[in-house]
Amino acid sequence: MRLNLLSQLICLVLPTLGVLTPAQQAPSAPSRPSAPSRADILRGEYGPLRANNDLLSYDLDIRVDPEKKFIGGKNTIRFKMLKDDNRIQLDLFDNLKVDKILYGSTELKYTRELGAVFVDFPATLKKNSVQSIEFHYSGSPKETGRFGGIRFGKDPAGRHWITTACQGVGASVWWPNKDQQRDEVENMRLRVAIPNALTDVSNGRLVGKTDLGDGYTRYDWAISYPINNYGVSLNIGHYEHFSDKLGDLSLDFYCLPENLEKAKRQFAQAKPMIEAFQKYFGEYPFKRDGYKLIEVPYSGMEHQSAVTYGNRFANGYLERDWTGVGVSPKFDFIIVHESAHEWFGNSITGADISDMWIQEGWATYAECVYVEALFGKEDALKYVNGYKSKVRNQQPIITARGVNQTPSQDQYFKGALFLHTLRSVVDDDIRWWKIIRAYYDRFKYRNIMTEDVVAFFNQQTGKNLTPIFDQYLRRAALPALELRFQESDGVVSYRWKTDVKEFAMPVKVGRTLDWQILWQTIQPTTEWKTMKTDLIKEVFEVATDLYYIDVIKN
Ligand SMILES: [Zn+2]
Predict the structure, then answer these.
(1) Contact at 8 Å (CB) between 309 and 225?
(2) 300 CA distance to ligand 1 centroid (A)?
(3) How far is the CA of 228 from the centre of ligand 1 (A)?
(4) Which helix H or strand E contains 508, and what residues bound it?
(5) Cβ(526)–Cβ(496) under 8 Å?
(6) How many angstroms separate the alpha carbon of residue 22 from the centre of ligand 1?
(7) Which of 58, 357, 466, 509 could cross-link to 361 by cystine, CB 3.0-4.6 Å?
(8) 478: closest CA among 551, 387, 383, 378?
(9) d(CA 479, CA 477)
């Protein structure tokens, strides 16, 4: 279920654009455009063999052998047919073996091409029929990608520590599934058998723990909400556990034993953060499954109801002042950013990674909302503007659709600065917070595209904001406010210099007087307009901390 709202799929395959492989969240060099590979088309396209069915549930039942770095088991996949057909597409990395695919007691035929597995049924599956197959697989998954994919590691004390973080790479790096973002299961079971000495902390609720009698114990997790594939997570190690409550929301924390005191201190930030997000966005989305924060060896990931954390129990990001303006050291960036994804990323999900700003831009903006809630508006303004140093404006935030093309890092920082700019366009905070809350409420538990966001904001504001969205998200360059001073006449001319011709956005201009800035709002378009001013070029100011724009003074 959880198909996206757009009824029509638009698959733009632009041969001149290619795959971006950004490094960890630090600024990275711009990537070279290249044609999408066959693998990227197979992964990225929501083709007819994906669109012919709607996921209902996964039941992933696996055994993990840390010594052999080996996984084996099966995923029972339930789905509903949306049309008559006899073939579907699933995904599993080609280094993993398909042991068999069962349909009842019938072994199904299948064809593999790179990461795709095309499964054939002996007869046509009828539209609206509910089907179930058992996908058996095994092998040694490879450690790969931005966050490691799956890692058979050791903790500092030399004990086994196996973690997954497969956003971008794809969940099919370690288990078979329909590996895309448009369609999610309604719920999921995750059964993980591991050596007795270890603990697995995964998504959802632990509903059972069974000693299998052969040195292995199976942990059974039940996820009672829709979940995206990359949000499904294994965290297998020697974990200590402590817990807390926020009203009737359970908060569970897991860390290595030696970090217990540090974790108790640092993880105390979770509660006021969730309170702030609940105030501005709405109730924590996965209440039945609880909120968990789990120590891992990489920086962190938004695994649904099981947020993973590796930020060294220190404020900022990896002990740095993340936006470089003195605000970041007041809080733990990973706790806040990754948890914000529970609202923006896990509850509201971009249906294609081309539009992943719906997850990353909004989660980054949520950091600013958190700063405003806890430390005040002045800090929030400083914090969001600190992100300007990380923006490159070299490619549009939204990439080509259907070709597995990860957007550039601008999706985070420019995405947040764009939403901050949009707030200044609305220019009424009470209204802005109402719109933000209504936005979350409208799209929670759904998979959407930018068109849905634009239509919602246009409807809420009663304005045509489409050209503004287009310029910030679909073009590389910032809008530039061009000013021409004719000081002898006491006149200034102004217009927007943009790629989008219909671009029109209000902006505040003015001057500093007795330490106060006196603003007036002007309504520039891409056509020249003129106004009277007694200000000369040098003292004429533009509110560039409220609007993320360039200013050209002539
Ligand atoms: Zn993120």
Answers:
(1) no
(2) 9
(3) 14
(4) strand 507-513
(5) yes
(6) 13
(7) 357
(8) 551
(9) 6
Distance CA 343, CA 362 (A): 9
Residue 37, burial from CB neighbour count under 10 angstroms (0-12, 13-18, 19+): middle
How many angstroms is it from 341 CA to the middle of ligand 1? 7
Distance 203 CA to ligand 1 centre (A): 18
CA of 338 to the centre of ligand 1 (A): 6
Going from the Cα of 81 to the center of ligand 1, the distance in angstroms, rounded, reads 33
The Å distance, Cα 317 to ligand 1 centre, comes to 13
Dihedral (Cα; 499, 504, 506, 507), 10-degree rounding: 20
**Kind plus residue range of the DSSP H or E element containing 483:** strand 480-486
How many whole angstroms from 164 Cα to the centroid of ligand 1? 16
Per-residue pLDDT of the chain (554 residues; tens, 9 = 90+): 554 443 333 332 222 222 223 333 433 444 545 789 999 999 999 999 999 999 999 999 999 999 999 999 999 999 999 999 999 999 999 999 999 999 999 999 999 999 999 999 999 999 999 999 999 999 999 998 878 899 999 999 999 999 999 999 999 999 999 999 999 999 999 999 999 999 999 999 999 999 999 999 999 999 999 999 999 999 999 999 999 999 999 999 999 999 999 999 999 999 999 999 999 999 999 999 999 999 999 999 999 999 999 999 999 999 999 999 999 999 999 999 999 999 999 999 999 999 999 999 999 999 999 999 999 999 999 999 999 999 999 999 999 999 999 999 999 999 999 999 999 999 999 999 999 999 999 999 999 999 999 999 999 999 999 999 999 999 999 999 999 999 899 999 999 999 999 999 999 999 877 777 789 999 999 999 999 998 899 999 999 999 999 999 99
Beta bridge partners of 97: 138
State the distance from the centre of ligand 1 to the C-alpha of 269, rounded, in angstroms.
18
Q: How far is the CA of 248 from the centre of ligand 1 (A)?
A: 27
The separation between CA 164 and the C-alpha centre of its own chain, rounded to angstroms, equals 16
Chain Cα centroid distance, residue 435:
21
Global pTM? Answer: 0.93
User: What span, in angstroms and rounded, lies between the C-alpha atoms of 160 and 154?
Assistant: 5
Residue 237: CB atoms within 10 Å: 26
Whole-number Å distance, alpha carbon 210 to ligand 1 midpoint, is 35
Ligand 1 centroid – CA 412 distance (Å):
7
